[in-house]
Amino acid sequence: MIRIIEAKDYKDMSRKAANIISAQVILKPNCVLGLATGSSPIGTYDQLVEWYEKGDLDFSGVSSVNLDEYRGLDRENDQSYYYFMHKNLFDRVNIDPARTNVPDGTEPDAEKECARYEALIDSMGGVDLQLLGLGHNGHIGFNEPAPVFPKTTHCVDLTESTIEANKRFFASADDVPKQAYTMGIGTIMKAKKILLVVSGADKADIVAKAFFGEVTPEVPASILQMHGDVTLVADEAALSKIPR
Ligand code: F6R
Asked: Distance, CA 142 to ligand 1 centroid (Å)?
């Protein structure tokens, strides 16, 4: 069952999502937040920072685990998800940096890093609230359409279209990472609660397909229909094609 919360626009979506995250932090100050990068959650992070600055939110007991990271990028690289998280959230609130976790893109042994990350999440007691964005093809994390749902944290080969789309952020196409470490669908499904933020008319087709269509690994986010506690916060444009 997916609970759908309709927002007017990106700002309204961000405020509503931040409200849900802040409720989680207030209810359980030592909670584990699962976090995402991309353009969708930036407004949510900005709103959380604003409330933190006003003294309404305290992240001192919170731990976090991020969904994914490019393989081969170090922390100082401004395209790494580590860098993104510090810039957009961690460096702006009082979360303990030692309690924030992003897969280590510099670990060359993929099997070792993925097993370490999966075990780390389990050792933290699992994710209380996982924040997700939605890709145009239904991907969540770096779990792209595939014949089966990948279960645990694993290493993925980025598709040509993803490499092509990311090229503009790098000096040349050769500098674009070709692989990433990502939580699996099974890892994501183990989160106690899931919060998805989606905005824009360009996501309307995939929102309808993922949440009102068939559950299939060809649309990875469709698996969320089987999770017991999913909240989708989306703006009017992104919800414009769902059955009413
Ligand atoms: C981010 C991630 C991706 C994005 C998705 C949507 O950590 O894993 O799955 O959530 O690509 O990206 P945006 O929000 O930029 O549309």
From this structure: 8
